[in-house]
Amino acid sequence: MSILVDKKTRVLIQGITGHEGARACREMLSYGTRVLAGVTPGKGGRKIEGVPVYDGIREAILRHPGINTSLIAVPALFVRDAAAEAIKNKISLINILTEHVTVRDSAWIVARSRSRGVRVVGPSSVGIISPGKGKVGSIGSSAVEKKIFSPGPVGIISKSGGMTAEIGVLLTRAGIGQSTAVGIGGDQIIGSDFADLLTLFERDPATQAVVLFGEVGGSYEEEAARLISQRKFTKPVVAIIAGYFTKDIAPATVLGHAGAIVSRGRGGYYSKVLALKKAGVHVASTLEDIPKIIKSILRL
Amino acid sequence: MNLYEYEGKKLFSRYGIAIPRSVLWRKGNEPRRQWMKNPVVLKAQILAGERKKTGGILFASGAADVARRSRALFRKIVAGEAVKNILVEERVLSAHEWYVSFSYDTARRAPVLALSPRGGTGIAHAHTTAIDLSSGVEDFLFRDAIRSAGFQREDIFPLLGVVKKLWSIFWNESALLAEINPLFRLSSGELVAGDAKIIFDDEKVSPGARRFIALGGDIAILASGGGASLLSIDALVRVGGRPANYTEYSGNPPASVVRALTKKVLSQKGLRGCWVVGGTANFTDIYETLSGFVAGLREVRPRPRYPIVIRRDGPRQREAFRTLERVREDEGYQLYFSGSETSLSESARAMVEHSYRNTGVRRARK
C-alpha cells in the first residue's frame, strides 16, 4: 500500500496551461497517472497533452466525477483562490506546487481546508509519489526517474524537493524501495507537516520505516518528536536536520526556504536534534548514513 | 523585510494607533522643536532588538543635553550597526507597560495574538490566542483574549481598539510580525505605542528574491535548492571548509539568473575555491543552469584560478557536463565535476582538499 497517492488517484490540474502545470501534466501522464482534466479560467475548451481544459472546477467535476486530487500550479497570487475553489468542490487532496505564497494566504488555506476536512500538501511541494503506482506534482522527473524512486517499505517526508529525490536515490541504490515520498515544502505555514503524515504512515501496512528531512526554523520537527514520544507513531524513524552551520548566524536571518528562520532559542539545530533523539529517532548527520541506518533497523 | 521603529510608527499613525510626539533626526541635520525642552528619549534607529541593553537608547533633557548625547549616539556602533538616524521622542510618563503582538505560530499553523499586562517580558511570557481564520475575526474573540491575559475590566475597550488596529496592520500589510512592546497605559487611561516592530513577508515585498548572506570564509557557494543548500554548507563546515557566503537558486531558473548570481558570488574577495552544489534535481534543467554558471564565470575579473568543484545531477546533466569538459580543455579553468555518484560529503571533502592544498591550512578532523 501507500499513502495519499495510489492507482485510484484521479488528478485535476489547476493552472494546466501554464509552464509548470503543463510540465507536471506531461510528467504525471508519462508515469501512468490518470490526469482527467485541467482548469484555467478563460482557456476552457482546449487540450493540453490530450487532457481537456475547463474554465472552472465545477464544470470539470460535472464531466469527470472521478476527480479526487487537485494539483495547484497557478501563480502565487492566485493560489488562495484556487485552493478555495478546490475546497468548495470537495476535492479531498490538494497538492500545491506553487512557491512564494505569502504566509497570510497559506494560513488562510490551512484554516479553510481543516474546517472542511480537506487535506492540503504544500505550498512549495515538489509533489507526492508512490513508486510504481502514481505521482502528483513535479516529483521525480521522467528523465531520471528510474534511478530515483522504486517501490518498497520506506516512507519519505521532506521539507525540500531536491532532498526528497536525493534520499530516494540513496535508498534505491542501496536496494531499499519506498512506499510513498512526500515533499511537504519548506514554508513557514504548510498544509501537512511531519506529524500529519506520520499519522498516515502509521496506518499504512506497507510502510516499515520513515525518513524525515527537516531544517532549522519553525516547530514541525519538534511536533514530530512529540507525536513519536506519545507513541502515536511506533515505527522506526531516521531523520536528518539541515542547518548545523546556522548555530553561528545572527538570529532572524531567513535561509533557503522561507520557513528556515534562525531564531533565538527556538527551532534551532540543537533544539530539533535533541527533541528527536529524545523521542528515539535515529538522527543521521550525513545523507549517506541514512540507507545504512535503515538497513540495520530493518535487518535488510 | 524588517521595518525601523520610525517606519513602524508611521504605519501605526496611519492606522490610528497613538504614538508619542517625535521627530526623526538624521545625522548632521539637527531638528529644533519647542517640546524638546521637555525630557526626551533618544533612540538609535537600528534593526537589532534590546537596544536599552546595548546602549542604543539614551535619556536627555534640555537642548544642550540633547545635543551632547545625540552626538555621542551618532558616533556609536550599536549591536554591530552604525547609527544613521535617531528618533527623538517626548518621554512618556506611563502608569503601566503592556505587551501586544500578532505573529504566526507554526505549532498551531495560525496567526496568534499575544498579550501581557507586564510589558518588556516579550512574547515568551505573554498569553497567546490562536486566530481561527476559518470563521470571522470578531471583536468578542479579542475581548476574551484580553480578559484571559489578565487585564482589568476598564481596560477591555481601550485595548480592544489597539488590538483591532494592530490586526488590520498585520493582515492588510501581510506582516509576519506586528508588535508593540511596550504599549504605554497613561494614568489618563490613554494607550500609546512606545515601540514598533514590524516584519513584512518577503514574498509580498520582493517575490522570488535570491538570498545572499556573507559568512566570512573563503569558499564561494552556489547552491541550488533550499534544503540542499543548507545541508551542503553543513557538510562543508563539518570537513573544515569555510564558506564565504550563503546563496541559493531554487525552482528552475533561466541561465541569466544563474549568470548574474555567479558573478556576484565570485566577485567576493580572497576566495580559494568555488563550490557549485545541489542534490538530484527533480525538474531543474541542469544544462540551463550550468550554462548560466559558465557564462557568469567567463565574465569574472580577475579570472578565477582557484579550484571549482561542481556536484549536480538531474535532467540534461550529461549535456551540461560535456560542455564543462570543453570549457576545461579550451579555457583552462580548474574544474572538477561529478553527479550523484559522489556524495555531498565527498564533494565537500574534495572542495576542501583542492582549496587548501599546499596552503598550510590545517584541516579539521573528519
UniProtKB/TrEMBL annotation, chain B:
Reaction(s) catalysed by this chain's protein: oxaloacetate + acetyl-CoA + ADP + phosphate = citrate + ATP + CoA
Keywords: Acyltransferase, ATP-binding, Ligase, Nucleotide-binding, Transferase
InterPro entries hit by this protein: ATP-grasp, ATP-grasp_succ-CoA_synth-type, ATP_grasp_subdomain_1, Citrate-bd, Succ_CoA_ligase-like_bsu, Succinyl-CoA_synth-like
PROSITE patterns listed in its UniProt record: ATP_GRASP
Coiled coil: none
Any GO CC annotation of this UniProt entry: succinate-CoA ligase complex
The name this protein goes by in its record: Succinyl-CoA synthetase, beta subunit
Presence of keyword ATP-binding: yes
Organism: Candidatus Adlerbacteria bacterium GW2011_GWC1_50_9
GO BP term, pick one: tricarboxylic acid cycle
GO molecular function: ATP binding; ATP citrate synthase activity; metal ion binding; succinate-CoA ligase (ADP-forming) activity
ATP-grasp domain location: 9-209
SUPFAM superfamilies to which the protein is assigned, alphabetical: Glutathione synthetase ATP-binding domain-like, Succinyl-CoA synthetase domains
Keyword NAD part of the UniProt annotation: no
